[in-house]
Specification:
The structure holds 2 protein chains of 2 kinds. By secondary structure, chain A is of the alpha/beta class. Chain A contains 7 helices and 10 strands. Chain A has a 6-stranded mixed sheet, sandwiched between helices. In chain A, strands 2-1-4-5 form a 4-stranded antiparallel sheet, covered by helices on one side. In chain A, about 40% of the residues are buried. By secondary structure, chain B is an all-alpha fold. Chain B has one domain: MetI-like fold, CATH 1.10.3720.10. The chains are: A alpha/beta, B mainly alpha.
Chain lengths: ~270, ~250
């Protein structure tokens, strides 16, 4: 797929954070070249501090690259938040003073929809995320997993064409993570959006993604891209397949040496 | 009623009862203080007769204006300062030492600037309340989680919209804490200024009654001020508890 037709395209993207008082800046990322195809589920794994979240923030437009270009649907992103992108963060980003319903409706306040259409769309997304019985509840009354579903619902209500997930299940227990993974796969199939997932969990990446990029230790670069070849209709039960172990083994093979670098040890 | 609330009510009731006994037995003579039941009776008489209504209305109106100004200017100033670190760091020593300055020392200056009307009194009430609002609002804004600000950016909110729809609602419990201080300070400012130089208001009436040994006016007005201040503060505390409870705090 060429850059002209890619849904998201990164060319020579580098991020260097300015130095504090003296010395050189912190080279956090890159150069990275990457293309995401429309409708694919793409995951990135890498050692701690390798620049995964920096990469996501560059695609989201939350920060600008020091060098290189990021394009979404053919338009260059340069520190502005483009229309059509939704982000779910690892931390709880629910607005605690709003009910679930109002949290989800927050993004629609400027949408050119009638009040009835807005209400309908909010209700549909709340139902889609299984939060129908908690629409009037406040986030503090919900579990961590449910709050993360509220954040996903607030993203989905805008019908984004690109969904960026920054370790969205990092604070959840393993069972909840697997079930949330099922829900994300269901939403991905239903919406047809492109999904870009950052995670430190190899099994999560292997279960969810069509393609998985492995990043090096800082400065983060893409050192391997693994294709899972899973069918589009899939859920967490895919972890029982014999090939699943092969995917995670390949990811770990690529990642092990880089992870050792981050803790100051050489591979043996 | 919880056990703690019951204890609180009991402590107040016992204190009032003790005062009543001391007054009725002559330990505290009548020129010094009326017994509490008499103060309440006199307060009823004052309110029903309407003789002091103009003074009460003047004080409460001026205190409300001072409070409203302190809240609007305080919250707006905090929202602006929060985005301008250098300005904030420059002003931090002023905020830290502000209440060490006797604000009433500026009252003559305010009279020179604004004349003998209500404006200098409102000015004193405002000056006493505004920094409490600024400091507490800044405290709340400092605690807004960064992820909420990122979420606001993703939702494509501008700077002002982010402040109005995300930062200030998130900081609301802290703003309310500042408001509670501002209620007390604005009343102190207005009544204190009326004591010093005024021809009306509850402060003036209390001062006049004090100079004329008119306990039937002085104590009821003091009780009325207490009741107003405590009622507003209790309402704000209740609202604060509701906001915190919604957040699981």
């Amino acid at each position: 797929m060429s850059a002209a037709t890619a849904h998201v395209s990164l060319r020579g993207v580098t991020k260097v954070f300015p130095a504090a008082a003296s010395g050189a800046g912190l080279h956090a990322l890159g150069p990275v070249d990457l293309e995401l195809q429309k409708g694919e589920f793409f995951a990135v794994v890498g050692p701690s501090g390798c620049g995964k979240s920096t990469l996501l923030e560059l695609i989201a437009g939350l920060s600008s690259p020091s060098a290189g270009t990021v394009e979404f649907e053919g338009h260059r992103i340069a520190g502005d938040i483009p229309d059509g992108i939704g982000v779910v963060f690892q931390e709880d980003a629910c607005f605690p003073w709003l009910s679930v319903e109002d949290n989800v409706a927050f993004g629609l306040r400027k949408a050119a929809l009638s009040p009835d259409d807005k209400r309908r769309r909010v209700r549909d997304v709340i139902d889609l995320m299984g939060l129908g019985d908690f629409a009037r509840s406040h986030p503090a009354q919900l579990s961590g997993g449910m709050r993360q579903r509220v954040c996903i619902a607030r993203t989905l209500v805008l019908e984004p064409r690109l969904i960026l997930l920054d370790e969205p299940f990092g604070a959840l227990d393993q069972q909840t993570r697997l079930l949330m993974g099922d829900e994300v796969l269901r939403v991905w199939r239903q919406t047809g959006a492109t999904v870009f997932l950052i995670t430190h969990a190899l099994d999560e990446a292997a279960m969810l993604a069509d393609r998985i990029a492995v990043m090096s230790a800082r400065p983060g670069r893409l050192i391997d891209v693994v294709e899972t070849n899973w069918p589009r209709e899939r859920d967490s039960r895919i972890v029982a397949r014999p090939e699943f172990g092969g995917v995670t083994a390949r990811l770990w093979k690529s990642l092990r040496e880089e992870s050792l670098k981050t803790i100051g040890r050489e591979a043996t | 009623m919880t056990r703690v609330t019951l204890y609180r009510v009991l402590v107040i009731a016992l204190a009032v009862l003790a005062l009543e006994v001391l007054c009725l037995t002559g330990v505290i003579d009548r020129i010094t203080m009326q017994p509490p039941h008499r103060i309440l009776y006199d307060l009823g008489v004052i309110l029903i007769s309407g003789k002091r209504n103009a003074a009460i209305a003047k004080t409460l109106t001026n205190a409300s204006i001072a409070l409203a100004l302190a809240l609007i200017v305080g919250v707006a100033t905090a929202a602006v300062l929060h985005g301008h670190r250098a300005v904030r760091e420059t002003l931090d020593p002023l905020f830290a030492t502000y209440y060490a300055v006797p604000i009433f020392a500026f009252y003559p200056l305010l009279i020179v600037l604004f004349g003998l009307g209500d404006a200098p009194q409102i000015g004193i009430g405002f000056m006493l309340g505004v920094v409490a609002v600024i400091v507490n609002t800044l405290n709340g804004l400092d605690r807004v989680p960064r992820v909420l600000l990122k979420a606001a950016r993703i939702q494509r909110l501008g700077r002002i919209e982010t402040a109005l729809k995300v930062e200030l609602p998130c900081a609301a419990p802290y703003v309310l804490t500042g408001a509670k201080f501002a209620v007390a300070y604005s009343l102190i400012g207005i009544i204190g200024a009326e004591f010093i130089m005024s021809r009306g208001g509850m402060g003036y009436e209390i001062s006049f009654a004090y100079n004329n040994f008119d306990n039937a006016t002085m104590y009821p007005l003091i009780v009325l001020i207490l009741a107003v201040s405590i009622s507003i503060n209790a309402s704000l505390s209740w609202w604060e508890r509701v906001l915190l409870a919604r957040r699981g705090l």
